[in-house]
Amino acid sequence: MTLAELENAKAQSLAEINAADASQIDALRVKYVGRNGSIPALIKAMKDVPKEERPAFGKAVQAWKAEVEAALGAKGGAGAGERAVEADLTMPGRWRGLGVKHPLSRVIEESAAIFARLGFTVADGPELENKFNNFTALNTPAHHPSMDRSDTFWFGDDCLLRTQTSPVQIRTMMANKPPIRVICPGRTYRRDTTDATHSANFHQIEGLYVDTKSVSLADLKSVLAYFAKEMMGDGVTVRFRPHFFPFTEPSVEVDFTCHVCKGKGCNVCKQSGWIEVAGAGMVDPRVFKFVGYNPEEVSGYAFGFGVERIAMIKYGIADIRWLYENDIRFLSQLG
């Protein structure tokens, strides 16, 4: 388009706007200055204008845009009304409703408050970790499946996205002497998107208690039973099952009574009446050796659970992906 053609187009558009009534203004606004309108299309096509003509052409297009917007504003319409309201600072503001915290944030904050009553503080660490903190110091054997690149996000041979918040426990022990009583909430990553209950990105809260006095499995069970009742209500029952983890010995799986059937058995809990929530156990002596502790002088327990799993149980969420879609219709139901 030449400058002469541009002037003709501008004159035609202004005449069309001046002749239009209020019901036609919004359609003309879209036609000329909307995202796919005539003027934005010319601005995008500036690269095709000869370099020597570009400055004059650009000024002409901007002048056309300004005149069209002024003409549209003079004729009224929804856009002009909105600008007038926004410009009048004396008018009352628009009420957009009270927001609510995301369910994951709520579970993390509630968990931190519950464990704080038991003397636990919050520890934090980086999401980008090294192999020693994420695997070796946790007594993970070299052949363990989690070491494989099909399970973990690796960047080279010694850098990875942490698969758990356990490295924060390692860092805490290496930087401090017992007693230690911390929880470690945070984001973790695994190559796992197999179903509606798994995601490559998820959150964990892990806990660690180490002391020079005797710490027993009974202490661990009492802490987790207290957490379950505070988080899920007095009706919840906790079950501990023997299990194996490289970094704890003995190890247990922790189950809560199903929130849907209250332990009677349903499709959600596969008729068992229980839902697996956490893994836990007494810290393996070899882990203490990796961080420089004498296993003959200290003892302790560790536990970890998925924040998403707790949120799904607590709020009756069927699909983990709903937690990440930022759909206001879903989030507003949890207020």
List keywords for this structure.
335 residues, alpha+beta, BirA Bifunctional Protein, domain 2, 2 domains, seven-stranded mixed sheet, two-stranded antiparallel ribbon, 39% helix, elongated
What does this protein look like?
There is one protein chain. 39% of the residues lie in helices and 19% in strands. With 335 residues, it is α+β, with helices and mostly antiparallel strands. It has two domains: 3-87; 103-334, Bira Bifunctional Protein, Domain 2 (BirA Bifunctional Protein, domain 2). Strands 1-4-5-9-8-7-6 form a seven-stranded mixed beta sheet, with helices on both faces. A two-stranded antiparallel ribbon has the order 2-3. The chain is elongated. The relative contact order is 0.10. The model is unreliable at 78-85 (pLDDT under 50).
What's the helix and strand layout?
Elements lengths: L2 H17 L2 H12 L4 H7 L9 H22 L2 H10 L15 H14 L4 E2 L5 E3 H4 L24 E3 L4 H10 L4 E10 L11 E11 L5 H16 L5 E8 L2 E10 L16 E10 L1 H6 L8 E8 H9 L12 H4 L4
Parallel strand pairs: 1-4
Antiparallel strand pairs: 2-3, 4-5, 5-9, 6-7, 7-8, 8-9
